[in-house]
Recover the amino acids of this structure.
């Protein structure tokens, strides 16, 4: 039984990797036609890449809190991070093309790295604080141009599903630019695809969207206090039954 499960998992992961490459190539072609990275990522996430990945993974997606979104006002979306499937689910759940702040190592991934670079995602060097802040300020420039970005301020995927401390970089630029923050939470993804495994278990992943935190709520707080406040809001989403 374990052998059959291993074979099935290998086939499953191979198909997902193949579809990722195909989607990246299609995305780059669409970018060269439209020159609109926000629309390309919206199309890929909502209708092309993410739905097929979720189907191959045998994952059902549940979304709540869409009424809390303001798609006409750019903001920083902040989420917990527990699985590679987080990105897939968020891209399908949020009806707008978000620009990701991603670790620079992803830039070297074949096809996906080139796609992310071409459409305008931002890469961050987590080991170089100065360069990381330069990348974060590039994100602020995108927001000033009317585009929303998403960050995972824990910095890496949680090993046990519990919410880690939020790094303050996101909240420095939020305060500097008087930018709203949209908290979201991904539930159960760590049980579908764990951090140190490629076995994908069928199940339900939920994306919960919380109430927007207006920039004026953060104005009187330090960056550390703002990080703590937003972490508390994400934690409430995770605990809400």
């Amino acid at each position: 039984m374990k052998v059959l499960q291993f074979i099935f998992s290998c086939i499953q992961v191979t198909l997902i990797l193949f579809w990722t490459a195909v989607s990246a190539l299609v995305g780059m072609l669409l970018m060269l036609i439209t020159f609109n990275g926000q629309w390309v990522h919206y199309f890929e996430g909502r209708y092309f890449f993410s739905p097929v990945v979720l189907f191959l993974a045998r994952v059902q997606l549940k979304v709540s809190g869409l009424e809390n979104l303001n798609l006409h006002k750019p903001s920083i979306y902040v989420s917990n991070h527990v699985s590679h499937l987080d990105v897939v689910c968020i891209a399908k759940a949020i009806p707008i093309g978000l620009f990701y702040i991603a670790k620079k190592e992803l830039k070297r991934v074949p096809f996906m790295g080139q796609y992310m670079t071409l459409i305008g995602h931002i890469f961050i060097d987590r080991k170089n604080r100065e360069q990381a802040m330069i990348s974060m300020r590039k994100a602020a420039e995108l927001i000033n141009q009317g585009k929303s970005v998403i960050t995972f301020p824990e910095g890496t995927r949680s090993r046990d599903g519990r919410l880690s401390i939020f790094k303050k970089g996101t909240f420095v630029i939020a305060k500097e630019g008087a930018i709203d923050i949209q908290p979201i939470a991904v539930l159960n993804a760590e049980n579908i695809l764990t951090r140190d495994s490629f076995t994908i278990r069928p199940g339900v992943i939920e994306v919960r969207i919380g109430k927007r935190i207006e920039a004026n709520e953060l104005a009187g707080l330090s960056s550390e206090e703002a990080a703590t406040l937003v972490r508390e809001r994400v934690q409430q989403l995770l605990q809400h039954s």
Summary: The longest strand covers residues 181-187.
